[in-house]
Amino acid sequence: MRALLVVNPQATSTTPAGRDVLAHALASELKLDVLLTDYRGHAAEVTEQAVADGIELVVALGGDGTVNEVVNGMLARGLPSDPSSAPALAVVPGGSANVFARALGMPRDPMEATGTILNALEEQRSRLVGLGRTADRWFTFNAGLGLDAEVVAAVERARAQGLEATPMRYARTALREYWNERRRPPSMTVEIPGAAPLEGVRLAFVSNTDPWTYLDGRAVRLNPGASFTDGLALFALKDLGVPTIAGVLRQALRPDGDPRGRHVARQDAVAWVKVRSDKPLALQIDGDHIGARTEMEFRAVPRALRVVV
Predict the structure, then answer these.
(1) Under CATH, what is the fold of the domain 2-125?
(2) Which of 114, 119, 115, 122 is nearest to 91 (CA)?
């Protein structure tokens, strides 16, 4: 089997020695090419060309950003007519959160994950998962407008200045952006199929699976009913007051997290979500800041990608 290993050498838990061991293990069973990414978008570019050249498997070694780029490269020329026989994706966790890989049930240890992939290939085991689509991009686990995207953008600016994206930095940045957002709260209108428009929304997240993300290893669960097979899930807040935010965080960080409340709006298994804002808001897709938007449509695409697990 022809395979491409896409490695982000800057990923949090990726080391040259570990990368070489993983590549050697994969090469023992696969006809393997290895790419070390050099710049943003590099993984998507090379993956797109590899798929066009007939590659059968793409292995992403890195965090969720690397996975997102690889997925967008694999589907850059459109959905395959038969996803069950299309090139497959495999993920070796190499970042700090690894939301997509963990939602698939992959081991957090890169060597264990590699062993799982090789066993799955030997047993010809894979599954089809649904994805989300917005702003001409695919997302694997979540997207958001407003507060969370502002946090992502601020952390990206800090990383561009050479600062490390630690959990503490995310926490400090989130607190600062929360107070900024609370002083100037946006007003959004959210629409989903079969329901009246929801007015006066201050924050809107769209999920493709559960959990929404991880905070220093702890799952943040906003839509526990979300899955790769049932469409998208909406989580929205109509208030950004301290009692509301504190209550939601307390519930979301519990192992059985299931946030509810007077200002919480949730809906699972929806085909699409439309959001309009009274001012441009930051947009993030799989933890990647995309820019500012005043209107967005998020669509569920079932059985879009074959994944080796």
Answers:
(1) Rossmann fold (3.40.50)
(2) 114
Calculate the dihedral angle through the C-alpha atoms of 307, 289, 152, 255, rounding to the nearest 10 degrees: -30
Q: Look up residue 153 and give its two tokens.
A: 């953008």
- In three-state secondary structure terms, 119 is helix
DSSP 3-state of 165: coil
pLDDT tens sequence across 48-67: 999 999 999 999 999 999 99
Give me the residue spans of the domains in the chain. 2-125, 142-303
Can you tell me the distance from the alpha carbon of 209 to that of 222, in angstroms, rounded to the nearest whole number?
Answer: 10
- HSE-up of residue 244 (Cα within 13 Å, Cβ side): 15
C-beta separation of 264 from 299 below 8 A: no
Pairing between β-strand 57-62 and β-strand 88-93 as defined by DSSP bridges: parallel
| pLDDT tens digits along 243-253 | 999 999 999 99
Environment class of 246 (CB within 10 Å of its CB; exposed 0-12, middle 13-18, buried 19+): exposed
Q: Which residue is it, tokens 């589907």?
A: 75
Chosen CATH of 142-303 out of 3.10.250.10, 1.10.3880.10, 2.60.200.40, 2.102.10.10: 2.60.200.40
